[in-house]
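Many introductory courses stop at the sequence. We go one step further.
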Amino acid sequence: MVKIIKLKKRIESFQLDIKGLFLQDKKVHGLIGNNGSGKSTLIKLITGLMRPDQGTIDLGGLRSKDITFTTQRPYMLHDTVYHNLIYPLMIRNQMPSKEETEKWLEQCGLTGKEQQFAPSLSSGERQKLSFARALIFKPKLVFIDETMANMDLESIGVFESIITNIQKEDPITWVIVSHQPAHIYNLCQEVHMMEAGSHLFSGTPKETGYFMRERHEKQWSY
């Protein structure tokens, strides 16, 4: 379990202040909130890309090499699709197998494009390659930060199918950041809501729906 306790981080006028947030192992978590609520900042703190001003992040025994993330605008190495795909394996001194690379290329619709210059791929293809690259080394904790925001329905279906199959066969921990409620309710077992730098609520998708509806009704009752 990832435990986030009394976490604080100030960036100019923005203040992140998380009293307590817990991510159960081997579950799919949703992280929701408006722009500027602190979702991406929280991910950067958990993954070690930022250091907190105060508080603790207990990764439950996970090491940095067990964690990965994808973003809305993935970075592509100035190399082939194949070398982008196997890069996480190479930096971990793991040998890529032909079977594994072919599997990920096929699942993400990139078969036959192994030798293409990765930055020349379409936006959707770069997202798919980024997703495959994040998963090929079998991480234990994956952050999906708005990766599906600009995808077509077919590509979203591919992503959701891959996540569902992994959770059936050999489950890992996911945190999916999205403005699209359908992604969250289709995939997630637990949802964490952020607002103005604070953790507002955690619960099942159904409980989160009730919470948001009640909150909306209270706001309009004044």
